[in-house]
Amino acid sequence: MNQHDIAKIRILVCFSTILYLVFFFLPYIYQYTLSEEVNYYISSSPVKPFYDITMAQYWVILMVHMASFFALYARVIFARYLFLLIVVMDFIIALMSGVTSYTGLDVVIFSLLNMTSGLILYFEFFVLRNSR
Q1: Which of 2, 10, 23, 109 is the most exposed place for a label (fewest CB within 10 A)?
Q2: Residues 6+ apart with CB under 8 A from 1
């Protein structure tokens, strides 16, 4: 473990935080930039989800993500386990969300988020495992 590895993880965490915020707030931007028909298809689900998440729960999920990103950046001891729990939680929520539609930009951001999450977990559990 060296300062260069810690700098890499902090850059990844910052990049992932920005991506997550963009992904979270894109639907609010879409209502002003996309047509009414496209917004209808993006926001409606043809299949009822197993569990509907309320807006309050979405905001709680955002706050938990931001707390984990901050903890990772600050090198808090429990941060890697919190982040792992959040990644697993995201998978479970995705499985319960039913059929959804995404724009191309959503898919790119979502793919980048998955890749950066994997890299963060790799660095945290295999490269920086004894650095706290």
Answers
A1: 2
A2: 127, 128, 130, 131
